[in-house]
């Protein structure tokens, strides 16, 4: 991947999240580097979405430190908050499009909020964003309720990309899509990260996504993160991680990816 | 963060036009660049060079502006060439180029902002009203036929559900109904006493308060409170169940949603509304009596003797109306709940609609009763 570096763009330290007496995160540490695609996996209810919400400031943790682009998210002022929000885009699970606005108007919302632009330019920007995320012509005039799940996600992604952010947060981008649509979405994200130089923080359940587009994998186990390259995680001996990657679904996804890479003459380490 | 800067310089050289772009071509500078690009007088049939050497930063908005310029110039018969773009920006340009030239989406303007659209909308709403009435009557029919079926097999009706509904719609509404009618009783007695004193008839304050509360206000206020409180709750509950596909699940298990959801609410409300009306009547007259005592010095014996001069029919007229109101409120509340489709947004819209419709129908029926009773001369 281009632009990848050792500079952490997101840094989480000693994060503790509690809901009532339930501790979700207990001293969690995580780094996301510029230009990488990080896949966050974990069992249902292990707090993946809570982690995402904490990083983007929607959830206040019991304790810990969260830095995004060098700003402490938990102690940020309003001006800095607005500045930093220009540099990230978030795709929520079902797109979270504003239902009273058309797709094009949805994409224009961030532009309207942050920049003083002529309407015509905003319309043009919205139109080519619709093209970039691979939506057919004419989608811009439709309302979210007229779209399929896959199209809603693409529209949500177009809105997340409206301000050309540096970081994109994706909450289960392929959940609820059929395998073909999910595969297409993976390719779209991979292409966009390559050409736009995005950093991607992605919560996912989809093993195929993980194998095909993620540079690094962060696994949420025992209320903490274990992160590393796919190769390292495949060889991790934590029982949950073992059964995750080497269960029947994990093996199938791994096999198909290995075949794919074989065609491209790239060797993948054999699973244990 | 330093303010983003971008410049565009126009120069001519041996018959060809050179546009030199420098600085940061980003979404933040796009508005300014757009203005300057549109300000350029576009040549025709010339050679145009876009010199991109000086571009330090580029994002998709900047790339779009470059491509749009290229496209517009080419469309006017110019030969356009982009040169000296930094290689690391190439994938970005390619990505935006690959998106193609999608025509900008039109902003929808509501159709009824034109005269024809306005007239069409009046027609649409009128036809919608007819269709709606038809559909509500259909729903009423289904509920009646289900009620008859259940009447043959009373075991299918859950007494627990009815009692639970009575608690929610009746017992829990008691404080607000009692308080409001008590206050209304005080208000009527106060206002009435003032006007009646003008004619020297202030001793009839009790009759005025009693008759208006018993005949109209007690039952009407109770019905309006329940339409707002329980009718809306019915729509929201059933609507949410529809969004969650609970109604569909019920049908696949073999439960009849009308029998399980509508009948307990209907019967519960038909039983509680008259009881609440009794309570409302009592509290209203109590409030009126209290005012009469403090303002006019009317004591308990006089109060009771004046109250007994009100025709007993007044009491029954109020009470007879209450089950009809209850049926309307429960029916509309449940009907609108079943109309919910798809999104959670429609739950909110239909809940509002159900309250408005229920209150409207309650008042229409009340007017009908007034005409009916006056024809009977009671």
Class by alpha and beta content of chain A = alpha/beta
Taking strands numbered 1, 2, ... along the chain, how are they ordered across the largest sheet of chain B?
Answer: 1-2-3-4
Radius of gyration of chain B: 36 Å
Distance between the termini of chain A: 27 Å
Report the portion of residues of chain A in β strands. Answer: 15-25%
| Class by SSE composition of chain B | alpha/beta
How many domains would you count in the coordinates of chain B?
A: 2
Number of strands of chain B: 4
Number of strands of chain A: 10
Order of helices and strands of chain A: EEEHEEHEHHHEHEHEEHHH
Low-confidence stretches of chain A are none
Measured distance between first and last alpha carbons of chain B:
83 Å
Describe the structure.
The complex is a heterodimer of chains A (272) and B (378). Chain A is an alpha/beta fold and 272 residues long. Chain A has 2 domains: 1-87 and 169-267, 3-Layer(aba) Sandwich (Rossmann fold); 98-164, no CATH class. Chain A has 10 helices and 10 strands. Chain A has helices at residues 48-55, 78-85, 103-114, 119-132, 149-160, 179-196, 207-213, 230-234, 239-246, 248-263; strands spanning 8-19, 22-33, 37-42, 63-68, 71-72, 88-91, 167-171, 199-203, 216-221, 224-229. Chain A has a 6-stranded mixed β-sheet with strand order 6-7-8-3-9-10, sandwiched between helices. In chain A, strands 2-1-4-5 form a 4-stranded antiparallel β-sheet, with helices on one face. In chain A, strand 1 and strand 2 form a beta hairpin. The longest helix of chain A is centred in the C-terminal third of the chain and has 18 residues, at 179-196. Chain A starts with 7 loop residues before the first strand and ends in a 9-residue tail after the last helix. The longest helix of chain B has 40 residues, at 257-296. Chain B folds into 2 domains: 6-98, Transcription Regulator spoIIAA (2-Layer Sandwich); 140-376, no CATH class. Chain B has 12 helices and 4 strands; from the N terminus they run E-E-H-E-H-E-H-H-H-H-H-H-H-H-H-H. Helix content of chain B is 70%, strand content 9%. Chain B has 378 residues and is an alpha/beta fold. In chain B, helix 4 (115-152) packs across helix 9. Classes of the chains: A alpha/beta (272), B alpha/beta (378). The interface between A and B is large, with 39 and 33 residues.
């Amino acid at each position: 991947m281009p632009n990848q570096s050792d500079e952490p763009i997101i840094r989480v330290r000693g994060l503790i999240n509690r809901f009532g007496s339930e501790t979700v995160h207990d001293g969690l540490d995580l780094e996301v580097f510029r230009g990488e695609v990080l896949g966050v996996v974990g069992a249902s209810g292990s707090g993946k979405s809570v982690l995402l919400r904490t990083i983007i400031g929607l959830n206040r943790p019991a304790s810990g430190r969260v830095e995004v682009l060098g700003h402490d998210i938990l102690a940020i002022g309003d001006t800095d908050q607005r500045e930093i929000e220009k540099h990230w885009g978030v795709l929520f699970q079902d797109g979270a499009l504003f239902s009273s606005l058309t797709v094009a108007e949805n994409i224009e919302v961030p532009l309207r909020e942050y920049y003083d632009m002529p309407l015509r330019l905003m319309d043009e920007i919205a139109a080519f964003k619709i093209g970039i995320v691979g939506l057919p012509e004419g989608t811009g005039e439709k309302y979210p309720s007229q779209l399929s799940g896959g199209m809603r996600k693409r529209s949500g992604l177009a809105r997340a990309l409206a301000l050309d952010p540096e970081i994109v947060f994706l909450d289960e981008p392929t959940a609820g899509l059929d395998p073909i649509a999910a595969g297409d979405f993976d390719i779209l994200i991979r292409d966009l990260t390559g050409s736009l130089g995005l950093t991607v923080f992605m919560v996912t359940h989809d093993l195929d996504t993980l194998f095909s587009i993620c540079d690094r994998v962060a696994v949420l186990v025992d209320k903490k993160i274990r992160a590393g390259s796919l190769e390292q995680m495949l060889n991790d001996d934590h029982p949950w991680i073992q059964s995750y990657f080497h269960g029947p679904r994990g093996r199938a996804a791994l096999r198909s990816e290995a075949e794919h890479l074989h065609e491209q003459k790239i060797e993948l380490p054999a699973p244990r | 963060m330093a303010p983003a800067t971008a410049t565009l310089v126009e120069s001519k050289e041996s018959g060809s036009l050179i546009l030199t772009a420098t600085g940061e071509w980003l979404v933040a500078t796009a508005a300014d660049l757009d203005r300057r690009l549109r300000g350029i007088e576009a040549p025709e049939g010339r050679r145009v060079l876009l010199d991109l050497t000086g571009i330090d930063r580029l994002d998709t908005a900047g790339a779009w502006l470059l491509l749009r310029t290229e496209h517009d110039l080419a469309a006017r018969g110019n030969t356009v060439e982009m040169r000296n773009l930094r290689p690391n920006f190439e994938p970005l340009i390619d990505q935006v180029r690959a998106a193609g030239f999608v025509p900008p989406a039109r902003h929808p303007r509501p159709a009824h902002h034109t005269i024809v659209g306005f007239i069409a909308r009046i027609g649409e709403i009128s036809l919608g009203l007819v269709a709606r009435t038809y559909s509500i009557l259909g729903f009423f029919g289904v509920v009646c036929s289900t009620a008859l079926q259940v009447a043959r097999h009373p075991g299918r009706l859950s007494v627990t559900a009815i009692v639970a509904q009575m608690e929610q719609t009746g017992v829990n509404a008691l404080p607000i109904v009692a308080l409001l009618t008590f206050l209304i009783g005080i208000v009527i007695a106060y206002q009435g006493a003032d006007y009646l004193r003008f004619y020297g008839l202030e001793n009839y304050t009790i009759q005025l308060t009693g008759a208006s509360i018993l005949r109209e206000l007690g039952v009407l206020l109770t019905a309006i409170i329940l339409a707002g409180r329980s009718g809306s709750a019915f729509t929201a509950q059933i609507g949410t169940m529809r969004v969650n596909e609970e109604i569909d699940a019920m049908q696949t298990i073999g439960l009849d949603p009308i029998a399980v959801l509508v009948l307990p609410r209907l019967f519960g409300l038909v039983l509680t509304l008259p009881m609440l009306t009794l309570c409302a009547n009592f509290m209203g007259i109590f409030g009126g009596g209290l005012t009469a005592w403090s303002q006019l010095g009317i004591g308990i014996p006089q109060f009771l003797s004046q109250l007994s001069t009100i025709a007993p029919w007044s009491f029954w007229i109020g009470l007879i109306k209450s089950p009809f109101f209850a049926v309307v409120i429960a029916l509309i509340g449940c009907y609108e709940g079943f109309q919910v489709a798809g999104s959670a947004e429609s739950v909110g819209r239909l809940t509002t609609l159900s309250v408005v419709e229920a209150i409207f129908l309650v008042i229409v029926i009340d007017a009908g009763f007034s005409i009916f009773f006056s024809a009977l001369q009671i």
